[in-house]
Structures are given as structure tokens and as C-alpha cells.
Amino acid sequence: MLAAAAVCPAPPLLVPEVAAGAAPELDSLRAACSDALGALAAARPERLLVVGPADRDGRGPHPQGSAGSFRGYGVDVEVRLGAGDSAAGMPELPPSLAVAAWLLERARWDASPVEGLGIGEPLAADRCAETGRQVAAGAERVALLIMGDGSACRTLKAPGYLDERAAGFDAGAARALAEADSAALLALDEELAYEVQAAGRPAWQVLAGAGEGAGLEGRLLYDDAPYGVGYFVATWS
User: Fold this and answer.
1) How far apart are CA 161 and CA 165, in angstroms?
2) How many angstroms separate the CA atoms of 236 and 217, rounded?
3) pLDDT digits (tens, 9 = 90+) for 84-111
4) 3-state SS class at 62
5) pLDDT level of residue 202 (50, 70, 90 thresholds)
6) pTM of this prediction?
């Protein structure tokens, strides 16, 4: 059963070494992520599953101990998903799960074992939801850490340039996350999400499937668009 969930964005800029001189600009976002992880730990889960977008090489399961790094962003920072021995021979964590691993290390997560799941942007809403239902179907108390950004088209200087539809899409997603509204998350327009470059859409819809009937209450801790990208932090508990 789903005991709790947290939603965080996945920009590598959350890691201060990557952000360099711009690091203080995201201090409030880092603080919100820390609060969200605190809410997850308070739920006393038996297992934590981290879900985030990934390209083809990073999709699929990533067991506890899987490693990642931010060398691709010019800094020699390595992370590992959860405590314990490294998972030798496993693919490197995709960037979204590497950011999650960094957040968990920063929070000194020891509340439960941790696993990761990378999912592709093309995954349809119904398959995302079914994945979430399967995660929540077991008897153990599972928590979800959902990684993913909103639209990348909120301003002229955004990575995807300005798309007038982006703000409305993000507002709908933020409202659904704040209200723990699984139906509203599943109703997010997949084509529009792709066009406004909302990388978090599939992971949010995994959460929607897992949260169906769980009776959890939502709380939105952060909703802003620095650099023209929608970032949300939310808890379901």
C-alpha cells in the first residue's frame, strides 16, 4: 500500500557544485525538498521507490546501491542510491535519479531501503497508472519519491522558449499535486505535456495510479518557475 509520497523536481542545478555561483538562487527549493523528504521519513515506510524520467539506457529498475554522477555537468560529484554496497555492473543512474540520490544523501535517508525506476517520456498515461497500481498493490508500506519537472516553456529564456500554454498546464499539474487528485493527474494531456516539455508527466502519472484509493492528503510546498521551468514540491501523506 502507498504510505506516502513526495514530488520533487530534478534539475541538476539542485546540486550546488553544478549550480556554482547561482547555487543560492535555489536555496528555497532545496529547503522544500528537504521538508518533503522529512514527511516521507515520518510515514515510516518499509521501502522507498524513486521514480523519474530516463532515456533508453537509464530505463528500468535500479537497485539499492546503484551509482550516478554529475561529471556530465562538469563537476566530479558521485552519488549512490541508498546505503549499502554498490550495485556492481548496473547501469549508471539517469540524471533524475542521480538528483534524487543526492537529495537522499543530503537528508541522510535511513528510514527504509531504496530502489529506483527510470521511465521513458513516451510511456502512455494508462501504462504509467498501471505501474503505480502494481507498486502500491503489495502488503508492505511503500513510499514514492517522484522526480520530474513541469513545463520548460514558461519564459522567452526558458530551455523550450515561450509557449503560452505552459503556465496553464503547470497550474493544472500543481493543483492536482496539491489536492492529491489522482484523476486530475491522469487527465493531464500527454501531447501538450510533450509540446511544453513537461518531463515530469509520466512519473506524476505513476504516482496517480499508486495513489488511487489511498486516502492521502496533498500539500504543495513549492511552486515557481526559475529559469522558465516549472518546479513543484509536494507531499501526499
Assistant:
1) 12
2) 5
3) 666 566 789 999 999 999 999 999 999 9
4) strand
5) very high
6) 0.96
Give the domain CATH number at 168: 3.40.830.10
Kindly state the cell numbers that stand for 35. Answer: 521538508
The total domain count for the chain is 1
Helix (H, G, I), strand (E, B) or coil at 63: coil
Domain that holds residue 152: 2-236
